[in-house]
Amino acid sequence: MENEKRKIALSLIQPSGTITLGNYLGALKNWVDMQEKFDCIFALADLHTITVRQEPAKMRKNILDAYASILACGIDVEKSLFFIQSHVHTHAELAWILNCYTQFGELSRMTQFKDKSAKHADNINAGLFTYPALMAADILLYQADLVPVGADQVQHLELTRDIANRFNGLYPNVFKVPEAYVPKTGARVMSLQDPTRKMSKSDENVNGCVHLLDDADTIMRKFKRAVTDSEAVVRYAEGKDGINNLIDIYSTITGLSREQIEKDFDGKGYGDFKAAVGEAVVEHLKPIRAEYEKLIKDKAYLEECYRKADDIALRISQRTLSKAKKKIGFIL
Ligand code: AMP
Ligand code: TRP
User: Fold this and answer.
1) Domain match, 230 and 313 both
2) How many domains in the chain?
3) What per-residue confidence (pLDDT) applies to 203?
4) Strands 81-84 and 179-181
5) What pLDDT score does 118 carry?
6) 210 plus 275 within the same structural domain
7) Which domain holds residue 82?
8) Of 13, 87, 192, 196, which has the fewest CB atoms closer than 10 Å, so is most exposed?
9) Model confidence at 186, in pLDDT bands (50, 70, 90)?
10) Which ligand sits nearest to residue 41's alpha carbon?
11) Mutate to test the pocket of ligand 1, among 23, 52, 182, 202 (most ligand atoms within 8 A of CB)
């Protein structure tokens, strides 16, 4: 129905370095597509990044770069809100409150906390531990219905639901209980050098990871060097992790099914297939890179976009925060 209220979809991403093809196909491309169907709220989770020590100048650059890159991917500021988390003070404020409704035991069970504290053993700070309470605040402030997240964030979303239900049990009707939205296609892009592992910017082998802003030659080189198998048949099958990954990347970008791709490359070798995947990625990313180059030079425009979105986000989130505070017993 035309007048039916659209669902609110909300997601944040940490601006912690360059954006990879994995981030794009696994998350950002879906953000762009979701704008057609939902009222979308997106933001850069810059408060979350300081759970790991940051270098100030680099952090500033990463935030602006991420903002420009994500706009370049196709986030439309006329349709969606796209703001910067730290500019909207309600997030930190509700996070404190939710900390008092989240149990130590629950936070201790978070696998990301366990992984990250093993990785940064010299800086296991309280922020790293209570990170999911801030994420819950990000979501619950906007009464979001759907939260598109990767598989690694599903546990945090479950905790958000538990916190919301607990809070609503004490003080009825404050928060909407959100649902995870895990997209069907392109959900997991693997490293081109070790296709049993997720493509990640922290890959020790630079050829394993394609960056959104890599130039055409670099992208082609990385795909040509992609690890495959010795069968030399373009076919999706168990044990063919490298080829499966390339088929999935190609499928997500071209919209062709796995079967169609197998048919199209019947009788052709891996060399041809790798080149075709590389070219499809280059062509797809070309306009994004061009738009990024234009946007990153126009700091005034970027600022105008995020200031406008920051103000609206503050207004929306303030309503939920005030309601929660009033119910708890604060004098407003
Ligand atoms: P990260 O860069 O790990 O913080 O991830 C940011 C977003 O991109 C999350 O939604 C992840 O699930 C998604 N993402 C990161 N790497 C990949 C990948 N290799 N494949 C699919 N999605 C990814
Ligand atoms: N924790 C998420 C990640 O690391 C980022 C994030 C922060 C987020 N707040 C959120 C994602 C709210 C979805 C909704 O990827």
Assistant:
1) no
2) 2
3) 82
4) unpaired
5) 92
6) yes
7) 8-187+299-328
8) 196
9) low
10) 2
11) 23
